[in-house]
Design goal:
The protein is of the alpha+beta class and about 325 residues long. It has 5 helices and 16 strands. An 8-stranded mixed β-sheet has the order 2-3-4-1-13-16-15-14. An 8-stranded mixed β-sheet has the order 6-7-8-5-9-12-11-10, with helices on one face. InterPro entries: Extradiol_RC_dioxygenase (IPR052537), Glyas_Bleomycin-R_OHBP_Dase (IPR029068), Glyas_Fos-R_dOase_dom (IPR004360), VOC_core (IPR037523).
Length: about 325
């Protein structure tokens, strides 16, 4: 990987919802994230793409959702992104969230995952989530919570934590992570009598870890509402991304090639078990078409879709996201 800088950690995770209004209510009012961009799926402009994050959508803090109104329920299985974790600052924050979840009637399971205090839970559509304490975390720094969040800043979510993959063949995914993407295998732990292998990149820590669980006896997951579409990893800039495009081409790994997403630049490919990976640049970010104060309040469209605004808006069910 000559001239390629190491991937910096997680950029974003993109999942599927069938209910944009309910999704907005849960991730902003219940989890306290900020909606930093209300836009459309650039590959299908008839559906919303919602970005929740820290105060300004810093790389590594984004959890995004495509709204597919007729999406069926996910049938959980292998070859999937099976848990998305969200970092909170401390063990005391985990205690805060236990009380909050109890008051809201949200079921959870307290766990110790890779020596971190954690709460496993699901959203209203069965999206598999986990809060992870950063009490003793070293490595990639978290983001900065929005001060207008309903969750106190000292307990608020500060970014993406470890992403868990469930795969039929550990060796195949491990090969892509280590030999192609430059991750390092750094440890293992047991989760419900199953071994999980931990890989990290860049500065490491919970914001740069992929946890891989091998489940060879499960059927392949059938995605729907409550499933994860893809995980994206951070690339420094466009120059580096174009080198990754060339590198995958040299390895004869099929990819999307360079993709302009306006808020960042991207590259997509599937690893050996069929999970979709994205490499995405840290910038330009979300303030090119909205001010910091007004992020997420209106339907934002990249310039190349602006001429189609009327027809795009006509296909979308109105979603009020102004505070």
């Amino acid at each position: 990987m000559e001239q390629l800088l190491p991937l910096k950690g997680h950029h974003h995770v993109s999942a599927i919802t069938a209910n944009a209004k309910g999704n907005y209510e849960f991730y902003t009012k219940t989890l306290g994230l900020r909606l930093v961009k209300k836009t459309v799926n650039q590959d299908d402009t008839s559906v919303y793409h919602l970005f929740y994050a820290d105060e300004r959508g810093n790389p590594g803090t984004d959890l995004t959702f495509f709204e597919i109104p007729n999406a069926g329920q996910t049938r959980y299985g292998t070859n999937s992104i099976s848990t998305t974790s969200l970092r909170v600052p401390s063990d005391s924050a985990i205690q805060y969230w236990k009380v909050r979840f109890d008051s809201l009637g949200i079921e959870y399971e307290e766990q110790n995952v890779y020596k971190r205090l954690s709460l496993a839970f699901k959203d209203f559509e069965g999206q598999r989530l986990m809060l992870v304490s950063d009490e003793n975390n070293q490595g990639v720094k978290g983001g900065k919570p929005w001060e207008k969040s309903p969750v106190p800043v000292e307990h608020a979510i500060i970014g993406l934590g470890p992403v868990m993959l469930t795969v039929a063949k550990l060796e195949s995914t491990a090969l892509i992570l280590s030999r192609v993407l430059g991750f390092k295998e750094v440890g293992t732990y047991m989760l419900q009598d199953k071994k999980v292998t931990v890989f990290e990149t860049g500065l490491g820590g919970s914001g740069a870890e992929v946890h891989v669980l091998e489940e060879s006896d499960l059927p392949v997951e059938r995605p729907g509402r409550g499933s994860v579409h893809h995980v994206a990893f951070r690339v420094e800039n466009e120059e580096q991304l174009r080198k990754w495009v060339q590198y995958l081409k040299e390895l004869r790994i099929a990819s999307s090639g360079f993709v302009e997403r306006y808020y960042f630049k991207s590259l997509y490919f599937r690893e050996a078990n069929g999970i979709l990976f994205e490499l995405a640049t840290d910038g330009p970010g979300f303030e090119g078409d909205e001010s910091f104060e007004n992020l997420g309040e209106r339907l934002a469209l990249p310039p190349y879709f602006e001429a189609q605004r009327s027809s795009i808006e006509a296909k979308l069910k109105p979603l009020d996201t102004k505070e």
